[in-house]
Write the C-alpha coordinates for this entry.
Amino acid sequence: MSVASLQPEAIPTDIPAYMQSLGEAARAASRELAEAEAGRKNTALMAIADVVLGQRALLVEANERDLEAGRTRGLDDALLDRLALNDARIEAMAEGCRQVATLPDPVGEITGLAYRPSGIQVGRMRVPLGVIGIIYESRPNVTVDAAALCLKSGNATILRGGSEAMHSNRALAGIIQAGLVAAGLPRSAVQIVGTTDRAAVGELLRMSAYVDVLVPRGGKGLIERVSRESLIPVIKHLDGVCHVYIDAAADADKAFAVAVNAKTQRYGTCNTMETLLVHHGRAGEMLPRLQQAYAEHGVELRGCERTLAVLPGIRAATDSDWTEEYLAPVLAIRVVDSLDQAIDHINTYGSQHTDSIITEDWSAARRFLRAVDSSSVMVNASTRFADGFEYGLGAEIGISTDKLHARGPVGLEGLTTQKYVVLGDGHVRT
Protein backbone atom coordinates (compact mmCIF):
# COMPACT_ATOMS: atom_id res chain seq x y z
CA MET A 1 0.00 0.00 0.00
CA SER A 2 1.36 3.40 -0.91
CA VAL A 3 1.54 6.27 1.53
CA ALA A 4 -0.69 8.26 -0.81
CA SER A 5 -3.48 5.73 -0.41
CA LEU A 6 -3.47 6.39 3.31
CA GLN A 7 -4.07 10.11 3.17
CA PRO A 8 -7.29 11.28 4.91
CA GLU A 9 -10.15 13.03 3.22
CA ALA A 10 -10.44 16.82 3.05
CA ILE A 11 -11.51 18.64 6.23
CA PRO A 12 -15.30 19.13 6.12
CA THR A 13 -17.01 22.51 6.36
CA ASP A 14 -20.73 21.61 6.46
CA ILE A 15 -20.70 19.87 9.83
CA PRO A 16 -24.33 18.58 10.04
CA ALA A 17 -24.22 17.15 6.52
CA TYR A 18 -20.77 15.69 7.12
CA MET A 19 -21.78 13.99 10.38
CA GLN A 20 -24.91 12.56 8.77
CA SER A 21 -22.78 11.10 6.00
CA LEU A 22 -20.55 9.43 8.61
CA GLY A 23 -23.61 8.03 10.35
CA GLU A 24 -25.16 6.66 7.17
CA ALA A 25 -21.89 5.02 6.13
CA ALA A 26 -21.37 3.56 9.60
CA ARG A 27 -24.87 2.10 9.71
CA ALA A 28 -24.39 0.43 6.33
CA ALA A 29 -20.99 -0.92 7.38
CA SER A 30 -22.40 -2.25 10.67
CA ARG A 31 -24.77 -4.53 8.79
CA GLU A 32 -21.92 -6.05 6.83
CA LEU A 33 -19.73 -6.39 9.92
CA ALA A 34 -22.51 -8.15 11.82
CA GLU A 35 -22.30 -11.00 9.31
CA ALA A 36 -18.50 -11.06 9.01
CA GLU A 37 -16.88 -14.27 10.14
CA ALA A 38 -14.20 -14.15 12.81
CA GLY A 39 -11.52 -15.02 10.26
CA ARG A 40 -12.18 -11.90 8.18
CA LYS A 41 -12.15 -9.68 11.23
CA ASN A 42 -8.92 -11.23 12.44
CA THR A 43 -7.39 -10.80 9.00
CA ALA A 44 -8.28 -7.11 9.13
CA LEU A 45 -6.74 -6.74 12.59
CA MET A 46 -3.50 -8.39 11.50
CA ALA A 47 -3.43 -6.21 8.38
CA ILE A 48 -3.90 -3.07 10.49
CA ALA A 49 -0.99 -4.16 12.69
CA ASP A 50 1.21 -4.63 9.63
CA VAL A 51 0.28 -1.23 8.16
CA VAL A 52 0.86 0.51 11.51
CA LEU A 53 4.43 -0.79 11.51
CA GLY A 54 4.93 -0.32 7.79
CA GLN A 55 3.82 3.33 7.94
CA ARG A 56 5.82 4.21 11.05
CA ALA A 57 7.43 7.19 9.33
CA LEU A 58 4.05 8.59 8.29
CA LEU A 59 2.79 8.29 11.86
CA VAL A 60 5.85 9.92 13.38
CA GLU A 61 5.64 12.81 10.92
CA ALA A 62 1.94 13.40 11.65
CA ASN A 63 2.50 13.09 15.38
CA GLU A 64 5.34 15.61 15.31
CA ARG A 65 2.96 18.14 13.78
CA ASP A 66 0.60 17.59 16.73
CA LEU A 67 3.45 17.86 19.23
CA GLU A 68 4.72 21.08 17.67
CA ALA A 69 1.23 22.56 17.74
CA GLY A 70 0.89 21.46 21.36
CA ARG A 71 4.13 23.14 22.36
CA THR A 72 2.98 26.32 20.64
CA ARG A 73 -0.31 26.15 22.58
CA GLY A 74 1.59 25.68 25.84
CA LEU A 75 0.53 22.13 26.67
CA ASP A 76 2.34 20.88 29.76
CA ASP A 77 4.87 18.05 29.69
CA ALA A 78 2.37 15.46 30.96
CA LEU A 79 -0.09 16.18 28.13
CA LEU A 80 2.68 16.22 25.55
CA ASP A 81 3.85 12.84 26.83
CA ARG A 82 0.34 11.39 26.48
CA LEU A 83 0.18 12.79 22.96
CA ALA A 84 3.54 11.43 21.77
CA LEU A 85 3.85 8.38 19.51
CA ASN A 86 7.31 6.90 19.95
CA ASP A 87 8.60 3.57 18.65
CA ALA A 88 7.46 1.69 21.75
CA ARG A 89 3.91 3.04 21.51
CA ILE A 90 3.68 2.31 17.80
CA GLU A 91 4.85 -1.25 18.45
CA ALA A 92 2.28 -1.49 21.27
CA MET A 93 -0.56 -0.41 18.97
CA ALA A 94 0.36 -3.12 16.48
CA GLU A 95 0.70 -5.72 19.21
CA GLY A 96 -2.66 -4.69 20.64
CA CYS A 97 -4.32 -5.45 17.30
CA ARG A 98 -2.66 -8.84 17.21
CA GLN A 99 -3.77 -9.62 20.75
CA VAL A 100 -7.38 -8.69 20.00
CA ALA A 101 -7.23 -10.97 16.95
CA THR A 102 -6.40 -13.91 19.24
CA LEU A 103 -9.37 -13.31 21.55
CA PRO A 104 -12.46 -15.51 21.21
CA ASP A 105 -15.15 -13.90 19.06
CA PRO A 106 -18.32 -13.49 21.15
CA VAL A 107 -20.56 -12.78 18.15
CA GLY A 108 -22.94 -15.61 17.25
CA GLU A 109 -22.55 -17.51 20.51
CA ILE A 110 -25.84 -19.16 21.52
CA THR A 111 -26.43 -19.88 25.20
CA GLY A 112 -29.24 -21.30 27.31
CA LEU A 113 -30.84 -23.21 24.44
CA ALA A 114 -33.58 -25.31 26.00
CA TYR A 115 -36.78 -27.08 24.97
CA ARG A 116 -40.07 -25.57 26.06
CA PRO A 117 -43.24 -27.65 26.70
CA SER A 118 -44.49 -26.64 23.24
CA GLY A 119 -41.50 -28.35 21.65
CA ILE A 120 -39.69 -25.19 20.49
CA GLN A 121 -36.14 -24.48 21.61
CA VAL A 122 -35.42 -21.02 23.06
CA GLY A 123 -31.96 -19.55 23.59
CA ARG A 124 -30.04 -16.30 23.34
CA MET A 125 -27.53 -15.29 20.68
CA ARG A 126 -24.82 -12.70 21.23
CA VAL A 127 -24.83 -9.98 18.56
CA PRO A 128 -23.06 -6.63 17.98
CA LEU A 129 -24.53 -3.40 19.32
CA GLY A 130 -24.32 -1.86 15.85
CA VAL A 131 -22.58 1.53 15.67
CA ILE A 132 -20.47 2.80 18.56
CA GLY A 133 -19.42 6.43 18.87
CA ILE A 134 -16.28 7.02 20.92
CA ILE A 135 -15.25 10.49 22.10
CA TYR A 136 -11.80 10.71 23.67
CA GLU A 137 -8.93 13.04 24.44
CA SER A 138 -5.17 13.27 23.92
CA ARG A 139 -3.77 9.78 23.44
CA PRO A 140 -3.81 8.77 19.76
CA ASN A 141 -3.19 5.11 20.63
CA VAL A 142 -6.83 5.00 21.78
CA THR A 143 -7.76 5.33 18.11
CA VAL A 144 -6.30 1.94 17.27
CA ASP A 145 -7.28 0.26 20.54
CA ALA A 146 -10.93 1.33 20.23
CA ALA A 147 -11.11 0.50 16.53
CA ALA A 148 -9.70 -2.99 17.17
CA LEU A 149 -12.21 -3.80 19.90
CA CYS A 150 -15.17 -2.49 17.93
CA LEU A 151 -14.08 -4.37 14.82
CA LYS A 152 -13.62 -7.70 16.62
CA SER A 153 -17.02 -7.36 18.31
CA GLY A 154 -18.65 -6.71 14.92
CA ASN A 155 -19.44 -3.04 15.47
CA ALA A 156 -18.85 -0.11 13.16
CA THR A 157 -17.41 2.88 14.99
CA ILE A 158 -17.18 6.65 14.66
CA LEU A 159 -14.16 8.00 16.53
CA ARG A 160 -13.83 11.60 17.63
CA GLY A 161 -10.41 12.23 19.13
CA GLY A 162 -9.09 15.38 20.74
CA SER A 163 -8.12 18.37 18.61
CA GLU A 164 -4.57 18.17 19.96
CA ALA A 165 -4.10 14.78 18.21
CA MET A 166 -5.90 15.53 14.95
CA HIS A 167 -2.96 14.95 12.57
CA SER A 168 -2.06 11.68 14.32
CA ASN A 169 -5.65 10.47 14.32
CA ARG A 170 -6.21 11.30 10.66
CA ALA A 171 -3.09 9.34 9.74
CA LEU A 172 -4.25 6.43 11.88
CA ALA A 173 -7.67 6.53 10.22
CA GLY A 174 -6.07 5.98 6.84
CA ILE A 175 -3.98 3.13 8.23
CA ILE A 176 -6.96 1.40 9.83
CA GLN A 177 -9.06 1.75 6.70
CA ALA A 178 -6.25 0.33 4.58
CA GLY A 179 -6.26 -2.75 6.81
CA LEU A 180 -10.02 -3.09 6.49
CA VAL A 181 -9.91 -2.90 2.71
CA ALA A 182 -7.11 -5.48 2.63
CA ALA A 183 -9.44 -7.91 4.43
CA GLY A 184 -12.39 -7.16 2.16
CA LEU A 185 -14.30 -5.21 4.80
CA PRO A 186 -15.84 -1.76 4.28
CA ARG A 187 -13.48 1.12 5.04
CA SER A 188 -16.40 2.95 6.66
CA ALA A 189 -16.44 0.33 9.43
CA VAL A 190 -14.02 2.66 11.24
CA GLN A 191 -14.31 6.41 10.66
CA ILE A 192 -12.53 9.33 12.29
CA VAL A 193 -14.37 12.63 12.65
CA GLY A 194 -12.05 14.69 10.46
CA THR A 195 -12.63 18.10 11.99
CA THR A 196 -11.72 19.86 15.22
CA ASP A 197 -14.96 21.84 15.12
CA ARG A 198 -16.71 21.29 18.47
CA ALA A 199 -20.05 21.35 16.67
CA ALA A 200 -19.22 17.86 15.41
CA VAL A 201 -19.45 16.52 18.97
CA GLY A 202 -22.87 18.11 19.41
CA GLU A 203 -24.05 16.48 16.19
CA LEU A 204 -22.68 13.11 17.24
CA LEU A 205 -24.53 13.28 20.56
CA ARG A 206 -27.83 13.64 18.70
CA MET A 207 -27.32 10.97 16.00
CA SER A 208 -29.66 8.39 17.52
CA ALA A 209 -30.77 7.27 14.07
CA TYR A 210 -27.27 6.04 13.30
CA VAL A 211 -25.37 5.53 16.58
CA ASP A 212 -26.44 2.90 19.11
CA VAL A 213 -24.17 3.74 22.04
CA LEU A 214 -21.58 6.37 22.99
CA VAL A 215 -18.39 5.81 24.97
CA PRO A 216 -16.69 8.96 26.33
CA ARG A 217 -13.07 8.55 27.45
CA GLY A 218 -11.38 11.53 29.03
CA GLY A 219 -11.74 14.11 31.75
CA LYS A 220 -14.74 14.65 33.98
CA GLY A 221 -15.86 17.69 31.98
CA LEU A 222 -16.07 15.70 28.75
CA ILE A 223 -17.94 12.82 30.36
CA GLU A 224 -20.39 15.14 32.11
CA ARG A 225 -21.13 16.94 28.85
CA VAL A 226 -21.72 13.70 26.96
CA SER A 227 -23.95 12.33 29.74
CA ARG A 228 -25.94 15.56 29.93
CA GLU A 229 -26.47 16.22 26.23
CA SER A 230 -26.55 12.80 24.60
CA LEU A 231 -29.75 11.44 23.09
CA ILE A 232 -27.98 8.07 22.84
CA PRO A 233 -27.23 5.54 25.63
CA VAL A 234 -23.79 6.15 27.18
CA ILE A 235 -21.27 3.69 28.66
CA LYS A 236 -19.23 5.72 31.15
CA HIS A 237 -17.80 6.38 34.54
CA LEU A 238 -17.35 9.86 35.98
CA ASP A 239 -15.04 9.20 38.93
CA GLY A 240 -12.93 6.48 40.43
CA VAL A 241 -13.30 7.10 44.17
CA CYS A 242 -12.05 3.67 45.24
CA HIS A 243 -11.75 2.36 48.80
CA VAL A 244 -9.81 -0.24 50.74
CA TYR A 245 -11.30 -1.24 54.10
CA ILE A 246 -9.01 -2.88 56.68
CA ASP A 247 -11.38 -5.01 58.73
CA ALA A 248 -11.05 -6.02 62.38
CA ALA A 249 -10.16 -9.51 61.18
CA ALA A 250 -7.56 -8.42 58.59
CA ASP A 251 -4.15 -10.05 58.30
CA ALA A 252 -1.75 -7.19 59.03
CA ASP A 253 0.78 -8.04 56.32
CA LYS A 254 -1.90 -8.51 53.67
CA ALA A 255 -3.54 -5.26 54.69
CA PHE A 256 -0.25 -3.40 54.54
CA ALA A 257 0.69 -4.78 51.10
CA VAL A 258 -2.71 -4.07 49.56
CA ALA A 259 -3.11 -0.60 51.06
CA VAL A 260 0.31 0.49 49.81
CA ASN A 261 -0.10 -1.03 46.35
CA ALA A 262 -3.64 0.25 45.81
CA LYS A 263 -2.43 3.82 46.35
CA THR A 264 1.15 3.93 45.08
CA GLN A 265 1.40 1.46 42.18
CA ARG A 266 0.12 4.23 39.90
CA TYR A 267 -1.55 7.50 40.86
CA GLY A 268 -3.36 8.72 37.76
CA THR A 269 -5.72 5.79 37.14
CA CYS A 270 -9.41 5.41 37.91
CA ASN A 271 -8.83 2.21 39.93
CA THR A 272 -6.33 3.76 42.35
CA MET A 273 -7.45 3.85 46.00
CA GLU A 274 -8.43 7.36 47.09
CA THR A 275 -9.82 6.62 50.58
CA LEU A 276 -8.53 4.14 53.16
CA LEU A 277 -10.99 2.93 55.82
CA VAL A 278 -9.58 1.28 58.95
CA HIS A 279 -11.46 -0.50 61.74
CA HIS A 280 -10.85 1.33 65.02
CA GLY A 281 -9.43 -1.82 66.59
CA ARG A 282 -6.62 -1.90 64.00
CA ALA A 283 -5.89 1.82 63.65
CA GLY A 284 -3.16 2.02 66.30
CA GLU A 285 -1.36 -0.97 64.76
CA MET A 286 -1.77 -0.27 61.05
CA LEU A 287 -1.75 3.50 60.58
CA PRO A 288 1.79 4.33 61.84
CA ARG A 289 3.24 1.52 59.73
CA LEU A 290 1.33 2.71 56.67
CA GLN A 291 2.25 6.34 57.33
CA GLN A 292 5.93 5.47 57.07
CA ALA A 293 5.39 3.59 53.80
CA TYR A 294 3.32 6.39 52.31
CA ALA A 295 5.95 8.95 53.36
CA GLU A 296 8.56 6.98 51.41
CA HIS A 297 6.34 7.35 48.33
CA GLY A 298 5.66 11.04 48.96
CA VAL A 299 1.94 10.52 49.62
CA GLU A 300 0.12 13.29 51.48
CA LEU A 301 -2.31 11.98 54.11
CA ARG A 302 -5.59 13.62 55.13
CA GLY A 303 -7.45 12.10 58.06
CA CYS A 304 -10.59 12.23 60.15
CA GLU A 305 -10.38 13.25 63.83
CA ARG A 306 -9.77 9.66 64.96
CA THR A 307 -7.02 9.28 62.36
CA LEU A 308 -5.41 12.53 63.59
CA ALA A 309 -5.36 11.11 67.11
CA VAL A 310 -3.11 8.30 65.85
CA LEU A 311 -1.22 10.37 63.25
CA PRO A 312 -1.22 13.90 64.73
CA GLY A 313 1.08 15.43 62.12
CA ILE A 314 -1.15 14.93 59.08
CA ARG A 315 -3.68 17.29 57.51
CA ALA A 316 -7.31 17.19 58.66
CA ALA A 317 -9.73 15.82 56.07
CA THR A 318 -12.76 17.86 55.04
CA ASP A 319 -16.10 16.56 53.77
CA SER A 320 -14.95 17.12 50.18
CA ASP A 321 -12.04 14.72 50.66
CA TRP A 322 -14.41 11.76 50.94
CA THR A 323 -15.67 12.33 47.38
CA GLU A 324 -12.41 13.45 45.80
CA GLU A 325 -10.71 11.56 42.98
CA TYR A 326 -7.21 12.90 43.54
CA LEU A 327 -5.38 11.09 40.73
CA ALA A 328 -2.32 12.19 42.69
CA PRO A 329 -0.20 11.12 45.71
CA VAL A 330 -2.90 12.19 48.18
CA LEU A 331 -4.92 9.80 50.38
CA ALA A 332 -7.91 10.33 52.67
CA ILE A 333 -8.12 8.09 55.76
CA ARG A 334 -11.10 7.43 58.01
CA VAL A 335 -11.30 5.25 61.11
CA VAL A 336 -14.65 3.44 61.37
CA ASP A 337 -16.39 1.52 64.13
CA SER A 338 -17.59 -1.48 62.16
CA LEU A 339 -18.09 -3.25 58.86
CA ASP A 340 -21.53 -1.64 58.67
CA GLN A 341 -20.02 1.84 58.95
CA ALA A 342 -17.42 1.03 56.28
CA ILE A 343 -20.12 -0.19 53.88
CA ASP A 344 -22.25 2.86 54.60
CA HIS A 345 -19.30 5.19 53.92
CA ILE A 346 -18.51 3.50 50.60
CA ASN A 347 -22.12 3.52 49.42
CA THR A 348 -22.51 7.15 50.48
CA TYR A 349 -19.29 8.68 49.18
CA GLY A 350 -17.98 6.21 46.61
CA SER A 351 -18.40 6.31 42.84
CA GLN A 352 -19.48 2.67 42.35
CA HIS A 353 -16.15 1.86 40.74
CA THR A 354 -13.94 -0.52 42.79
CA ASP A 355 -13.78 -1.26 46.51
CA SER A 356 -11.90 -3.88 48.52
CA ILE A 357 -12.06 -5.42 51.99
CA ILE A 358 -9.05 -6.93 53.75
CA THR A 359 -10.24 -9.61 56.15
CA GLU A 360 -9.84 -13.23 57.22
CA ASP A 361 -13.50 -13.35 58.27
CA TRP A 362 -15.33 -14.83 55.29
CA SER A 363 -18.73 -13.98 56.70
CA ALA A 364 -17.64 -10.32 56.68
CA ALA A 365 -16.18 -10.75 53.21
CA ARG A 366 -19.41 -12.20 51.80
CA ARG A 367 -21.44 -9.41 53.38
CA PHE A 368 -19.12 -6.81 51.88
CA LEU A 369 -19.45 -8.44 48.44
CA ARG A 370 -23.25 -8.35 48.64
CA ALA A 371 -23.73 -4.94 50.23
CA VAL A 372 -21.20 -2.70 48.48
CA ASP A 373 -22.87 -1.28 45.36
CA SER A 374 -19.89 -1.02 43.00
CA SER A 375 -18.98 -2.43 39.63
CA SER A 376 -16.01 -4.34 41.12
CA VAL A 377 -15.90 -5.54 44.73
CA MET A 378 -12.81 -7.35 46.00
CA VAL A 379 -11.57 -9.39 48.94
CA ASN A 380 -7.90 -9.26 49.96
CA ALA A 381 -6.82 -7.74 46.64
CA SER A 382 -5.64 -4.35 45.39
CA THR A 383 -8.13 -2.15 43.57
CA ARG A 384 -5.50 -1.78 40.84
CA PHE A 385 -6.58 -5.16 39.46
CA ALA A 386 -9.81 -3.62 38.13
CA ASP A 387 -9.13 -3.57 34.41
CA GLY A 388 -9.92 -5.68 31.39
CA PHE A 389 -6.51 -7.28 30.99
CA GLU A 390 -6.32 -8.42 34.62
CA TYR A 391 -9.88 -9.77 34.43
CA GLY A 392 -9.02 -11.93 31.44
CA LEU A 393 -10.96 -9.82 28.95
CA GLY A 394 -7.79 -9.18 26.95
CA ALA A 395 -8.61 -5.53 26.39
CA GLU A 396 -11.25 -3.00 27.33
CA ILE A 397 -12.97 0.02 25.85
CA GLY A 398 -13.29 1.53 29.33
CA ILE A 399 -14.81 0.87 32.74
CA SER A 400 -18.51 1.38 33.30
CA THR A 401 -19.99 2.33 36.67
CA ASP A 402 -23.50 2.29 35.21
CA LYS A 403 -25.74 -0.74 35.67
CA LEU A 404 -27.11 -0.94 32.11
CA HIS A 405 -26.06 -2.45 29.87
CA ALA A 406 -22.46 -3.18 30.85
CA ARG A 407 -20.82 -2.81 34.27
CA GLY A 408 -17.15 -2.87 35.18
CA PRO A 409 -14.42 -3.30 32.55
CA VAL A 410 -16.06 -3.35 29.12
CA GLY A 411 -14.39 -5.81 26.79
CA LEU A 412 -15.63 -7.58 23.67
CA GLU A 413 -18.67 -9.09 25.38
CA GLY A 414 -19.63 -5.68 26.76
CA LEU A 415 -19.71 -4.34 23.21
CA THR A 416 -22.39 -6.87 22.29
CA THR A 417 -25.96 -7.55 23.33
CA GLN A 418 -28.20 -10.60 23.12
CA LYS A 419 -31.30 -11.47 21.19
CA TYR A 420 -33.63 -14.40 21.66
CA VAL A 421 -33.52 -17.17 19.07
CA VAL A 422 -36.26 -19.77 18.67
CA LEU A 423 -35.81 -23.07 16.85
CA GLY A 424 -38.84 -25.00 15.71
CA ASP A 425 -39.88 -27.59 13.17
CA GLY A 426 -43.14 -26.26 11.83
CA HIS A 427 -44.44 -25.56 15.34
CA VAL A 428 -47.64 -23.49 15.67
CA ARG A 429 -49.18 -22.11 18.82
CA THR A 430 -52.50 -23.57 19.90
Summary: The longest helix spans residues 15-34.
